[in-house]
Design a protein that fits this description.
Largest sheet: 2 strands, antiparallel
Number of helices: 10
Helix content: 40-55%
Order of helices and strands: HHEEEEEHEHHHHHHH
Strand order of the largest sheet: 1-4
Strand content: 5-15%
GO biological process, one term: cell surface receptor signaling pathway
GO molecular function: ATP binding; protein serine/threonine kinase activity
Number of strands: 6
Keywords: ATP-binding, Nucleotide-binding
CATH topology: Transferase(Phosphotransferase), domain 1
Radius of gyration: 23 Å
Shape: globular
Low-confidence stretches: 228-254
InterPro entries: Kinase-like_dom_sf, Prot_kinase_dom, Ser/Thr_kinase_AS, WAK-like
CATH class: Mainly Alpha
CATH architecture: Orthogonal Bundle
Protein name: Protein kinase domain-containing protein
CATH superfamily: Transferase(Phosphotransferase) domain 1
Length: 254
């Protein structure tokens, strides 16, 4: 008998298309998923290609920790080989076109599918059913709009509202992942490092915002003094805990 962890919070598909995720959560989930795939490709004794990466196969727990699931189509790749020729399996919309046409499965096939997930996170559109007015698939339309500088036409409004310059960087990364030729795509380790770098940059920005909020609080609650005695008396009568300052800062608009 096999016992699996119970993951109670549904799939990434549910959270993207039925509910709604913040931009921070989308980037966090993408980074965790990339890390999982990079581990499968390069950190296990025999590399594993998942072969069916899609939002339905990414499970989320109560803290939105991502769990890559459904390894029914996965394949081992011998260390001395870069790929294998095998019967095509996967999901239309996420399927690597080179694998589809040549039956050659490599780690870059997972990279393509992950790139589609990035597009899905950015647009909140379904890769398997979307068609543009010109008849293009989601990926083809996304690539075209980025090249034309018209990406705002397809981005999810919440991403536009909450995201910063990192949105464009993720979009560029997605387009690199879905390049037609597998050799032109990055490895999942490179994708992971890029996303972690973006997330670290975002964390630094948020830390700076919090610091500025505390500075605003100090200015608001400590009036200027005319001499050192006043300052000392004022300091002795105004003792605020970190929690008090945080509560005060939360009243200021972000």
């Amino acid at each position: 008998m096999l016992v699996y962890e119970f993951v109670s919070n549904g799939t990434l598909y549910d959270h993207v298309h039925v509910r709604s995720l913040s931009w921070d959560d989308r980037l966090h989930i993408a980074t965790e998923t990339a890390k999982s795939l990079a581990y499968l490709h390069s950190s296990v004794s025999i590399p594993i290609i998942h072969r069916d990466i899609k939002s339905v196969n990414i499970l989320l727990d109560d803290t939105l920790t991502a769990k890559v699931a459904d390894f029914g189509a996965s394949r081992y790749i011998p260390m001395e080989q870069s790929g294998v020729t095998t019967m095509v399996q996967g999901t239309i919309g996420y399927l690597d076109p080179m694998y589809f046409y040549t039956s050659r499965l490599t780690d870059k096939s997972d990279v393509y599918s992950f790139g589609v997930i990035l597009v899905e996170l950015l647009t909140r559109k379904k890769p398997f059913s979307y068609m543009s007015s010109g008849g293009d698939s989601l990926v083809a339309n996304f690539v075209t709009l980025l090249a034309e500088g018209s990406l705002l036409q397809i981005l999810d409004p919440r991403v536009i509202e909450e995201g910063g310059i990192e949105v464009e960087e993720v979009a560029k990364l997605a387009v690199t992942c879905v390049k037609i030729k597998g050799e032109d795509r990055p490895t999942m380790r490179q994708v992971e490092m890029t996303l972690e770098g973006l997330q670290t940059s975002m964390d630094h920005v948020l830390d700076g915002q919090v610091a500025r909020e505390f500075e605003k609080v100090d200015v608001a609650i400590i009036p200027p003094s005319t001499n050192s005695t006043e300052r000392n008396n004022d300091d002795s009568t105004r003792q605020y805990s970190l929690e008090d300052e945080f509560m005060l800062s939360s009243r200021y608009p972000r």
